[in-house]
Design a protein that fits this description.
2 domains, 6 helices, VPS37 C-terminal domain-containing protein, single chain, mainly alpha
């Protein structure tokens, strides 16, 4: 007797028709025959192997869990520190830019012009104050200054004018592009 059932499940071919009918009626008998089938045995074996493999993986994961938590904490701390250092870097970069700004050629030239003007004003103020200081005596007539006062004035005035002219020369060289400002 050949049927699609017996063709597909050849393990049942040795059972009689009554046994097959009992198989459908008796759940215990069905379970016994069902669990004796090689397909089912292979399925349970595979299921058991997968379960044991999953348990091994779970045990391994549990063994690594604390280490992973520690690494996560270390990574977070390193990331936070990196963010902090990045913020500090930006602050330092801003400070550096401000400091370097004082040494750019344009800023240095501006300082040279201001100091040249200030030096000229200072020397002119010294000359004006010397000229306006007229010593007088009781009779109302002016007396000539002593030679020491004049010598001191001349020495100081010459020194201030020398500084002024040096600065003015550097300013002219700058204007004529004879000054090279190095960036290093």
């Amino acid at each position: 007797m050949s049927s699609p059932l017996l063709t597909e499940f050849s393990e049942l071919s040795h059972l009689s028709r009554e046994d097959l009918e009992d198989l459908l009626v008796d759940p215990v008998y069905f379970q016994t025959i069902f669990h004796s089938l090689s397909y089912v045995k292979d399925l349970y074996r595979s299921q058991s192997e997968l379960g044991m493999a999953n348990e091994a993986i779970a045990r391994n994961n549990l063994a690594l869990q604390q280490r992973l938590y520690d690494l996560r904490s270390e990574t977070k701390e390193a990331f936070d520190e990196a963010k902090s250092l990045e913020a500090r870097w930006k602050e330092l970069e801003k400070e550096q830019k401000e400091v370097y700004q004082r040494f750019t050629p344009q800023f240095l030239m501006m300082r040279l012009r201001h100091s040249t003007t200030a030096q000229d004003d200072a020397s002119e103020a010294l000359a004006s104050s010397f000229v306006q200081q007229v010593p007088s005596n009781d009779s109302g007539t002016g007396t000539p200054r002593s030679g020491g006062d004049i010598d001191e004035f001349i020495k100081e005035f010459k020194e201030r004018r020398k500084v002024y002219h040096k600065r003015a020369m550097w300013g002219e060289k700058w204007a004529n592009k004879q000054v090279i400002w190095r960036d290093d």
